[in-house]
Amino acid sequence: MHHLAQGVQRFRRNVFPARAELFERLATTHRPGALFIGCSDARVVPELITQREPGELFVIRTAGNLVPAHAPGADAVAAGVEYAVDVLGVADVIVCGHSACGAMTALAEGRDLSALPALADWLRHADAARARCRTASAEDRVDAMVRANVLAQLANLATYPSVARALDRGAVRLHGWVFDIGTGAVEELDAANGRFAALPAA
Q1: Please, what's the largest Cα pairwise distance for the chain?
Q2: Are 94 and 177 a contacting pair, CB within 8 Å?
């Protein structure tokens, strides 16, 4: 904990003064352009990967970058998506999976999660991805799960009324990404053929 407190002090002393104007503006303005739904994995940092400033991304992080299909009742993911789309009016929503994902590895390898009942129940939101990867070879199964899971979570995302309405009026675009931790490369889903390829340069 001490090193975290030291980090706060370095931020206040070395970073904040040079960015004071930005933070002063952010104190009264919140207009992110994109919603980034990523994994809770500490190695996947949306603002670092995309090189965005504070205030530019609205971020939801869950174990396995899972987005439960819309259902009655409140949950944190549904509330975050609804707020980002209906209130903030984000133009883009990205679901980003990543290499060596612990959640996808556990499912791909059929690990016993009986000692982690909350996690096991949460990972059922990846059942569609697991079903798609049953025939993948053992060596390719984790990578296949990561990609299939991005597809499955995009499908779940489209079940949210706020997202469906925004899609109908062309107000939002959905994107699927996979981030490779070891190389820093990002692949993007081509919705036309369901395959992932290197993210094109702007």
Answers
A1: 55
A2: yes
pLDDT score of 59: 98
In the predicted structure, residue 6 carries a pLDDT above the cut 70: yes
Residue of 10, 12, 25, 43 with catalytic role: 43
User: Is 112 tagged catalytic?
Assistant: no
CA separation for the pair 68, 55 (Å, rounded): 26
How far is the C-alpha of 144 from the C-alpha of 148, rounded, in Å?
6
Question: What's the pLDDT score for residue 202?
Answer: 67
Question: Is 98 a catalytic site residue?
Answer: yes
Answer yes or no: 101 catalytic. Answer: yes
Catalytic residue, from 70, 96, 101, 133: name it.
101
User: Which pair of structure tokens corresponds to residue 189?
Assistant: 């889903």
Q: How far apart are CA 77 and CA 61, in angstroms?
A: 9
